[in-house]
Amino acid sequence: MYFVVKAALPDPTAEKFSFDEKTVHGGGKIQKGDEVYVFASDHKGLCVKGAVIAAKAGEDSRMAIEVKRTAKARFPLGREELKAHHESEEEGAEAELAQRLYHPATNKISGISELTAAFLDGFF
Q1: Rounded CA gap, 58 and 55, in Å?
Q2: Residue 43 pLDDT
Q3: pTM here?
Q4: DSSP summary character for residue 87
Q5: What pLDDT, in 10s, does the model give residues 70-80?
Q6: Domain range spanning residue 95?
Q7: Which of 5, 8, 26, 105 sits most deeply, having the most CB atoms within 10 A of its CB?
Q8: What is the DSSP-derived secondary structure letter of residue 77?
């Protein structure tokens, strides 16, 4: 399965990351081996792609995960680039990301479709 994480990312150049975030849209199904795309919550947008190396359910729909970075984003994709799709009723990768990441604009782990994962792969 594929997931996005929107969270604080103090050092996007690190090899490993730890997150403890609430889950939405199937994010609670994340497990070791899943692919994850990490968006920095400080408006930097998409930063890294990685593989989940550990996942543990927490309280109140939260998951604690560890991610090993597999690639760094080569192109920008954040709130500004997704803004046009924020209130849209269209379907597609950009609309799914705008909904998952910015409705509401809190930190989270969310499941995404295979189509959206393929779209995100184009940024690496």
Answers
A1: 10
A2: 73
A3: 0.93
A4: S
A5: 999 999 998 88
A6: 2-121
A7: 5
A8: -
